[in-house]
Give the backbone structure.
Amino acid sequence: MWDDQSCHWQGLSRSTETPRYEALARIINSPEYFGANVLDIGAGEGLLARYLSRDKKYTGIEPSAAACAGAANVTMIHSRIEDMEAPLPSEVVVFNESLYYCSDPLSVLIKAKKLFLKNKGLLIVSIYQKPSTWRDLFSSKMTNARATAILRKYLQRVRWRYTEQKIGVWLIFSAQNAAS
Ligand SMILES: C[S@@+](CC[C@H](N)C(=O)[O-])C[C@H]1O[C@@H](n2cnc3c(N)ncnc32)[C@H](O)[C@@H]1O
C-alpha cells in the first residue's frame, strides 16, 4: 500500500530510481510494442508513464487515493488489483515494484493473465533484490525474495519465454504471454 502516513513512496521520483524506470521503458518502447496499451499495476503516481514514448496508451491501477491524486496527466484506476473484475486487454502489463506488496502474488499473476494480458503480450516485473533478514525467513509475510521465487516458478509453469536482467539493485523480468 502507498504509505500515506510516512510518505515513504513519495521518494520514487529521486534520481536514484531513474535507472529502473529507464530500463523498463527501453523494453516497452521497443518497436514491437508500438501503440501498445500499457497497464501499470500498483502504479503509484504513474511515474513510469513519463518514460514511455508518446504512442503508448497508459493506464495505472493504484489503491492509494493519495498516489492517484498525485498522478498528473495519466489515466488511473483507483483499486487494488485483487478487486479488479473487468477485463482490460493490454499488450503490456507491468508490476513495477508492486508484486511483493500483494499477499498472494500467484493469484495476482493468474488474474493478470486472465483479465489483462493479451496473447503474445509482454509481462514486465521489477523486483528490488532486498537482502533477506532472519525475520523475513520466519514471518508469514510476503517478501521480495518469495515473490521472486513465485514469479519464476509461474513463468516456468506456463512455459513462457522470459529473461531476467539485473539493473543495479533491481531484477527485471520480461516475459511473453505465449508458451515456448
Ligand atoms: C514501491 S511502490 C511502486 C510504485 C510505482 N510502481 C513506481 O515504481 O513508481 C508500490 C506500489 O504498489 C501499490 N500496491 C500495494 N498493494 C497493491 C495491490 N494489492 N494492488 C495494486 N497495487 C498495490 C502501492 O500502493 C504502491 O503504490
Observations:
- The chain has a mean pLDDT of 93.
- The two ends are 34 Å apart (CA to CA).
